[in-house]
Amino acid sequence: MQRHYLKFVRRFYRQLRHPRMRKNRFFANLTHRLTNRRLWKPCRTTVSHGLAIGLFFSMMLPMPFQSFIAAFFAIRSRVNVPFAMLAVWISNPVTNVPLALMQESLGGFMRQSMHVPMPGFLDFSGTFPYTDISCNASNFVLGMLSSGVLASMLAYPLVHVISLLLPDHLPVTREEVIRVFKKSA
Prior knowledge:
It contains nine helices and two strands, in the order αααααααββαα. It is mainly α. The mean pLDDT is 78.
């Protein structure tokens, strides 16, 4: 798995550094930011931060181009871009409806148990056609925010538990990252 990831990253990195991409006026600023090696090295800190960004945006934005938004924030935060973009695909067209129902019920539970007030413009309800399912917009927004924060907080222990179980896959320090890259080259 690690060998395939490194092979993919090296190929993509070489394409970004190609002179045609660097000289293109449209891609010049983007490739300059993306050629930072830290964005592509798989170590525990960058992977956990990238996974947290990806999970946050997977729960927050039910929209088609959320992976590009996650990549933008991963580039700005200088964390692992591939993990941020791949984590967004947890909310795909198959899982969007169950996630939305879970977020609405989580928001309803939080509003009832914690008495969270919501603004008046979000406090409207509706039912889906041909079903008995009702949805409250304020419950959905609260559930969307809280599930995004909870999912991004769970990324850190998840990465560190996986790295404890598989210690050779995610190195800790920069020297170990350099050693892994030199060994696989």
